[in-house]
Every structure is written in structure tokens, then in C-alpha cells.
Amino acid sequence: MTEDLTLGAREVPLGGLRGLTVHRTLPQKGFPTVGAWCFVDHFGPTSHSMAVLPHPHTGLQTVTWPIAGEIRHRDSLGSDVVLKPGELNLMTSGDGVSHSEFSVGDPDAPMHGIQLWVALPSDALEGPAGFEHHPDLPVASGDGWTAKVLLGELGGATSPATTYTPIVGAEVTLDHGTATLPLRPDFEHAILAVDGPVVVDGVEVAHRELRYLAPGRAAVGLQVPRATTVLVIGGEPFDEELVMWWNFIGRSHDDIVLARDDWQAAAERFGRVDGHDGQVIPAPPLPEVRLTPRRRSVT
């Protein structure tokens, strides 16, 4: 069984070498998922804008959570939404979807936020694509903490966002000092230090690091030197093997090859995102080796 551990962040350019720099803590080699969560990118605070042309997805849900700055989301389903801080965008790929994301609003306003993916289970892979915008989310609170629940349930508050596996995601604001946050013992969890260091059950976690917590605990103790925001994600351990490459999640190398070929051929499964004069992000070349499932080997 995997034990508690801390995962550091690596810098990745989003949208090309001159794109917005993000700090990625998931997936990592030997550690692909926390519950069904399979991707965590933390960006900002930064003055660099977001400019991501249409690109495809399969096998997942995208979760976009801005903390500062506004993002215009357009997709192949016809959605056109300006996402503001404190609001949630959730896009389900099904067999295929495409979308774009661009900063809008005050050009001098900083950008800060988190983008995440949730892997779809096998019985949802062939389902229809979908998009949800949730401007109002439920809030839970306890002694020293307040949480806005993005997905799933925490502290008695349940998000209206659609989920396909038992899962939780919440932005938690901690007061100065200590707090105890309730957890589901059957879930594994992880805590992202969003805007400063946090001590998680006695272990100091640096800014941008992700602290993984194995199943079996009903609560976690958090300590911060000042009011601080963390992101809590978790879920039942995801037992399906995932082949992840670029923006695609499948179950085999052949799934990924087909998705890439279809995107390059402008296949109907990915639709079209209006407003970009046909510009898209082309898929990179596939590696010269057969893609294999990502498995957890870090313990």
C-alpha cells in the first residue's frame, strides 16, 4: 500500500514554449492518480495571460478553477462562457471534445488558478460530451476552516457538479493557527499548498507541493502561520489502468493513436470551436515506443 508522501512541482509551459508557465504536481513518474484525479496544474500568480487555442480531449473531465483573473471558455458543444474567480467550469470529454481558453477582462489583472483532470471510468468513456458552468458552489465550515466544494462532498456540503466515481475536490481557506479537516477513511487524498506553506499532520509542505494521504484516516490536522488557501482532492483509489498522452486518456496504445489520427484529420468526434478562424493546436508526434499504462510504483 502507498504511504503518505510529498510530491514536488515541475514547471511546464502551457500552450507552447512562450506560453503560461504552470506548476504540475500530478501525474508524476510512478504516481499517476489520487482517486480519479490524474492531472493538477497550478498557475500564477502571474501577469502572463492565458492563450490556449482549440485542442482535443478524450477519457476525462477538465476542472478549471480560477483564483484571480477571468478565462473565456469556448468548446465544440457551442459553450461560450467567461469564467470568474470562485466559479467552476467542468467539461466532460466522453469520446471526444475540443475547447479553447483565453484570458479576458482587465489586461493588468494577475492570473492565478488551478486546472485539473479527472479520469473517466470505462463505462463513461463512450458517453456524450458535456459542459457545466457552476457560478455558485456550496460552502462547508468548521473550527478554523471554510471550504468551497467543487466536486463531491465535504463537511456536509455537496457540489452539484457531475461526477462518475466517488470523489471530492474543495478549495479550503485556513485561518491562522491549526484546524482539523474531516476526511472519508475510504478515500485517498492530497493537499496542494496553493499560496504558502502548510503543515499537514506534522509534515511541512512547501508552497506548490502536493501532500498525498493514504486511505484510512477520518481527519487531517493542518497548521498555517497566516490565513492560507489549500486545495483538497481525493477519491476512492482508481483501479483502472490509464494510458495518458498529450491531451488524451485511453486504455491502450491503440486508443491514443486513433484519437491523435482523428484530431489531425479534423474528425467529427472532436467537433469545431468557433471564433478561431480554424486555428487549432496540432498534436505532437507520437513517441517511437508503444505507450503503456501508467502504474503507481512510488510507495
From TrEMBL:
Keyword Iron: yes
Domain of life: Bacteria
GO MF, any single term: metal ion binding
Keyword annotations of the record: Iron, Metal-binding
Pirin N-terminal domain span: 22-118
Domain Pirin C-terminal residues, every copy: 172-266
Pfam families: Pirin, Pirin_C
Cofactor field: Fe cation
Entry note: cofactor: Binds 1 Fe cation per subunit.
Coiled-coil region: none
InterPro entries: Pirin, Pirin_C_dom, Pirin_N_dom, RmlC-like_jellyroll, RmlC_Cupin_sf
Residues that, per the record, bind Fe cation: 55, 57, 99, 101
Family recorded in the similarity comment: Belongs to the pirin family.
Name listed for the protein in its UniProt record: Pirin family protein
Protein's organism: Aeromicrobium fastidiosum
